[in-house]
Design goal:
The complex is a heterodimer.
Chain A: E1 4-7, E2 10-11, H1 14-17, H2 25-37, E3 43-47, E4 51-57, E5 66-70, E6 74-80, E7 90-94, E8 100-106, E9 117-121, E10 124-130
Chain B: H1 2-6, H2 13-29, E1 48-52, E2 56-62, E3 72-76, E4 79-86, E5 95-99, E6 104-111, E7 116-126, E8 129-136
Antiparallel strand pairs in B: 1-2, 2-8, 3-4, 4-6, 7-8
The chains are: A mainly beta, B mainly beta.
Chain lengths: 145, 148
Amino acid sequence: MVATHDVTTRRSSAAEQKPDASSPESEQQSAARERDLAMLPVVDIFEDPHQITVQAEMPGVSKEGLNVHADRNNLVIEGRIGLDIPAGMSALYADLKTTQYRRSFVLSGELDAEHIAATLKDGLLTVRIPKRVEFRTRKIKVDVS
Amino acid sequence: MFEDLFSFGADGIFDEFRRLESQMDQLSRGSSWPAEIRSMQRGTFPPLNIGATPERVDVYVFAAGVDPKSLDLSIQQNLLSVAGSRKLEFNESANYYRRERFDGDFRRVISLPDDLDPERVEAKYRDGVLQISIQRRESARPRQITVN
């Protein structure tokens, strides 16, 4: 019930980003509509000397419904809520009006997109983006003579 | 035609504007149902959805990263109260760029349909969602009437 899922991040290849020549335009449009309707998950973002950590709240998303991908410039987190909903249920009240989460961030050059690690636990996604070794902050000792 | 002109990549600034526009639109239109007396302002933690079938009513509470043991659920007549606490551990030495996550105690009170049986409630917590299922009273369920 409170299992931690280790989520492997995958790099999005150029082929995936290019629209498939065989797919009809309506598919692209519906994908665009889905993006517009998606909720922005709330996040905490913090940086320490070694990495930047993004914690995103995506309650209702399981490992199967989660998609985290990164390339040199962008980190995209997406998730689909999968709830146990009985057949024929109608809504009496709804704070959440969609089942999609989506948020993206622009990465900067000193971050190592190859080694992003992500974990999902109880609907909380934690993404750690390490800095390239040569960019890690080193304490500079100041000698006062 | 114009969409093609402005859509340079998935997250161009225009996409953000369009998203903002559609959200503003939603806000100004408001909700289609009348405001419930205990409803809270947008962005209140935790958000919840309520669904109903002829047999039961389910409340879905979207509370990621909460210890289910810390939750205090109570039901009195048709009033369901969900309280709890989520203390975030802040990394003091880190530099924070965004702190959007809710930190602290929360409580939400929800009025439910009158025909529920408070004796038959089940609750489970999975993937950050607390699902509370409350059965309707047998007598209140719709019954098929055969005509002779």
